[in-house]
Amino acid sequence: MEQSETIRHHQRFPIFEQLQTDNTLVKMHILDQQYEHLTIVTGIRVEKGIPFFLIDSPADFKQSLDDVDNCRIHFEFVGSDNLKYSFMATGIRMMRDEIRIKFPEVIYRQQNRKNFRITPRIGTKICLDESCHRQEMSVLDVSLGGVLGTFDGADNQFKDSPMFTVGSSLRDIELTFPFEEKTVSVIIKEAEVKRTGINPETNRHICALQFIDLPKNQKKRLVKLIYEIQRDYLKRRVLKKP
What is the pTM of this model? Predict the structure, then answer.
């Protein structure tokens, strides 16, 4: 069961200051509506002792507010400490081109290191070398903490390879993402095999890896890619709505 820490009073300010400094992507969901979007915190204001945070206005946000009385918005994001934060906010003010939202009474920080896990685009690969033989897996899902892949080649390559036993350490793994007409790579210095098995839907071998050594610059790149994928997913879901 997940344990949460509550953040209140003056401790809330450093959270929003860090969000603004890092341009962290924040997922917002207007309750009682099928409206989800990503945004960023652009500033902090204090009016008559009441603190507000400013956000970049996502598409159709103002229109969605017009359709809701006593609007409540759920926010969540992954902080610089790789922990998940969430809070509920009300008290929204439209000030010319600014959107001001009253600070939440409480911000919840999860104590476990669970990451957002997403399904990437088709063609996303895990690439690694074993005794001069290149192995490739198609990525089923990915997060900042690890990746789940399925083998594209002959399954006997998996069975005969000691590198894919649980607890094995893999080094210099290349995670490749197709984007438009180019491929973007993330290099994981070390990962550990956490789980193996058979995908019942495809009857193919799968392998779950946990990232042990993900360099800071590569982590930033992976964060950006994960949110680009999520942004694209949300955009496509909106376009499919009747």
Answer: 0.54
